[in-house]
Amino acid sequence: MTFRVLIPARYASTRLPGKPLADIGGRPMIAWVYERAAAAGAVSVAVATDSTQIESVCRSQKLAVEMTSSAHASGTDRIAEVARRLGWADDEIVVNVQGDEPLIPAAVVRQVAGLLESAPRAAMATLAVPVESLKEYLDPNAVKVVRDCEGRALYFSRAPVPWNRDGARDGLASQTSWSGALRHLGIYAYRVAALLRIAALAPSPLEDIERLEQLRALENGLQIRVAVAVERPPAGVDTAADLERVRRLAGRCSQTS
């Protein structure tokens, strides 16, 4: 299996500006992400950014970096620009690894690429993990995914789906069953042709409502394969508190390696 990895990274962040450059154990966060992607066995790994600060740090760390337009609304658009500019073949597989996932397991990166390779009719592949609590199930920031019997995505939602009608006789907070519910992980594998098509499409109605760009692919008839991750990744970094948690986890990893 051959695949490429692109890591979209932007400097601006409402809750944590400069997030990709945050120090974790003496190295910038983006270097941790890059290392995990490289360990997955990708034939190429690069950071895709519009930030000269991120570019400079990547070069100082000997990380491949591709500069992109600052006009992109999403990481998908950013990696599509790179794939188009570098002339990658339509059937090549490219994995989008988020730049704020410094502890993502290499096995998960490889898994999502393999999932797409094994499904020739699919345009995309992604991963999920079982929902573990009512709090997580009801949390609109925890995106849920529903799939069919063959592992094809039916829908992604911020709402608690699937909903057990008989488990919540007194409203949302009374729900007693979320068995089978899956939380979506923000990692994607694309076939390049599908990536370019998705980036060229206008935002779709459901995408606008849910604020989930993967719904653009579903609304336009593209197949997305979904599998349960072989390993549950630690949560990514959105806030200063998340960063401190990851620093502690990274320290433990260093001590045991």
What would you say this structure looks like, in words?
The protein is of the alpha/beta class and 257 residues long. The chain has two domains: 1-104 and 235-257, Spore Coat Polysaccharide Biosynthesis Protein SpsA, Chain A (Alpha-Beta Complex), CATH 3.90.550.10; 121-184 and 201-233, Spore Coat Polysaccharide Biosynthesis Protein SpsA, Chain A, CATH 3.90.550.10. It has nine helices and eleven strands. Strands 1, 4, 5, 6, 7, 8, 9, 10 and 11 form a nine-stranded mixed beta sheet that branches. Strands 2-3 form a two-stranded antiparallel sheet. Helix 3 packs across helix 6. The longest helix has 17 residues, at 240-256. The model has no long low-confidence stretch (mean pLDDT 92).
In short:
The protein is an alpha/beta fold and 257 residues long. Helix content is 33%, strand content 21%.
Would you identify the CATH architecture of the largest domain? Alpha-Beta Complex
Structure classification: alpha/beta
Coarse shape? globular
CATH class categorisation of the largest domain: Alpha Beta
Reading the helices and strands in chain order gives EEEHEHEHEHEHEEEHHHEH
Question: How far apart are the termini?
Answer: 28 Å
Strand fraction equals 15-25%
Number of domains: 2
Question: Could you tell me the mean pLDDT?
Answer: 92
Helix content: 25-40%
Q: Look up the CATH topology of the largest domain.
A: Spore Coat Polysaccharide Biosynthesis Protein SpsA, Chain A
Biggest sheet architecture: 9 strands, mixed
What is the helix tally? 9
Number of strands: 11
User: CATH H level of the largest domain: which superfamily?
Assistant: Spore Coat Polysaccharide Biosynthesis Protein SpsA, Chain A
Radius of gyration: 18 Å
